[in-house]
Every structure is written in C-alpha cells, then in structure tokens.
UniProtKB/TrEMBL annotation:
Stored Gene3D superfamilies: 1.10.1660.10
Domain HTH merR-type: 14-83
Gene of this entry: adhR3
PANTHER family the UniProt entry points to: HTH-TYPE TRANSCRIPTIONAL REGULATOR ADHR, REDOX-CYCLING DRUG-SENSING TRANSCRIPTIONAL ACTIVATOR SOXR
Gene Ontology terms for molecular function: DNA binding; DNA-binding transcription factor activity
Keywords: DNA-binding
SMART domains: HTH_MERR
PROSITE patterns named in the record: HTH_MERR_1, HTH_MERR_2
The protein's name: HTH-type transcriptional regulator AdhR
C-alpha cells in the first residue's frame, strides 16, 4: 500500500518596500517610480495596506536592473514590460528587443576594450619611463 503524504506547505514570503530597496539595490523612490511608469506591477499589499514584494518581484527587479546597467533606455524597458504582461504571444518582439540591445552592448564592450588597450599601452609606456628614466624615441608622439 502506498503512503499518502501531504504536499509540503509553500510559505510565501513578502518584503516591505524598505527591504525590497535594500535587497534590490534600488532606492525606495526608484521602486515607486518603476511602479508609476509601468515597469513594475503594483505589488501586493499587506494587511496594513503597505507594499509587499515577493521573490518573483525581486527576480523581475533584478532583470530590470541588468537592463539599466547595460544602458537600455527606459522607453525600451517599458515596451518590454508591457509586452511581458501580454503573454507568450509577444515572445518574438521581446526576443528582438533583447537581441538588438545585446548587439549594442557588444559594440560598447568592443569600444571599451579599445579604450582599455590604449590605457594599457600608456601604462606600459610610463612604466618604461620609470625604469629607464627617459621615453623611448618611438613613444614621443604619445606622451600626452
């Protein structure tokens, strides 16, 4: 005979706006702003009417934070958020938004790498000056 065990109880944890701000790295004002402009669904409310953020809210906030960190404009984030609410039928457009943004991020990474290469060259140049006491003749043009 098989034993029947009850399904485990899933405890839903909620977080205040101050806890959400601390956990997400966003300010309380930013959380409210994101809610006001439609980037974040209004969170549930606790028995006292205060915002109660869930783990799912944190996952979404984390994703939004990554988009902002990579320079995605708020306008595009809002479009993505709006499409997300419309469901799976919008996946092609959401994928395209992310693919376009990923291409832009790659271009910026390449630009930053070129800048880092120049900095590395200049650092090496000054290390050589410090070791030898004078710049090499071929480095004269880049001693700025």
């Amino acid at each position: 005979m098989l034993e029947c065990t009850p399904a485990p109880t899933v405890l839903k944890v909620s977080y205040s706006i101050a806890q959400a701000a601390a956990h997400s790295g966003l300010s309380i004002d930013t959380l409210r702003y994101y809610e006001r402009i439609g980037l974040v669904d209004p969170p549930a409310r606790d028995s006292a009417g205060r915002r109660a953020y869930s783990d799912e809210d944190f996952r979404w906030l984390s994703f939004l934070t990554r988009l902002r960190t990579t320079g995605m404009p708020i306008r595009m984030m809002r479009e993505y958020a709006r499409l997300r609410l419309l469901g799976p039928g919008t996946s092609a457009r959401r994928r395209q938004i992310l693919a376009d943004h990923r291409r832009e991020v790659g271009e910026r990474i390449a630009e930053l790498q070129a800048c880092a290469d120049i900095l590395d060259f200049k650092i090496s140049h000054y290390e050589q000056i410090e070791r030898l006491g004078e710049p090499s003749p071929d480095a004269q043009e880049v001693t700025a």
